[in-house]
Amino acid sequence: MRYKHIAVGVVTASLFTLVVTGTAEAKRHCGPTYEQDGFGSLGTSFTLKSKHDDDGPGGSFVVGEEFEIHTNVAGQTWSITFADNGKVFFTGDDVSATTGIREQHPTANQPGVTQHMTADAVNHTTGETIHGFLDVLPVPGCGG
Asked: Taking Cα atoms as reference points, which of 66, 59, 67, 85 lies closest to residue 138?
């Protein structure tokens, strides 16, 4: 009988952990995820995603941008730039692996403003260019 109580306690604690973890994760972002799939000037595919989130400094609202270049060629250097309404907030070089490239960076939320998010990339080896863009609409009650 004692073992049944211990087992029930362990199962109850596990379920509580799942519920608490699921709830915390569900509150991390707000509003829809915007996504664009496209191709670069030489046919390399890419995905650009953006959404409002509350994981900025001190829990502040930000707009996160995630950019994936789906190249299967390792060792190529790509220069990548992220901008929000024309203002650059990230620029850097990344070297591709056979799985491609993935960059993810946030920018400040601008309440009440549609944020035109862009990602641009240039392949130093082939000269291929990629231009992705999304319009992220303000979200009331989510810093917008």
From this structure: 85
